[in-house]
Input
Amino acid sequence: MEYVFGTQEDIEVLKTKGSEHSDLTGFHQIERSYPDQTVTDCFRVVRKLDSLEDGEGNCYDWYEIDRHYRFTDKTGPVAQQLVESTAALEDALCEYDELAGARMGEIEDAMCEQDDANDVRISAVEDAVCEIDAIISTISEGGTINEQNLG
Output
């Protein structure tokens, strides 16, 4: 059923179109969904004004209505956009975490290599200090320095 709201002179009217005639009375709420919004019309039927049929089998009915108000909800597309944006942000954060994790692994490997190199240098310095201590001990005991002491 199709619903068209409008005015005729000083009254508000509703036209219905369908495969059968409508017989509306009392209060009604009609909700129509579109890709970008949902429109809800609430109204009260005062009286039926007219009924007609066309050659294609369509039935038309006109009503006088009052207390009509329309609510338009556009949050559906906004909510969908929020879901899509959130998903894209989560994907980007996951990619960043993977890259950051890989980079941290590279940094940790480099630090381990640097620690190993430092250990070798410290060991060489300690060996040199021991040799110097031995030479100093030899000199202080009145000995002489020769290639055997240095080597």
Notes: Residues 63 and 140 are 123 Å apart (CA to CA). The chain has a mean pLDDT of 90.
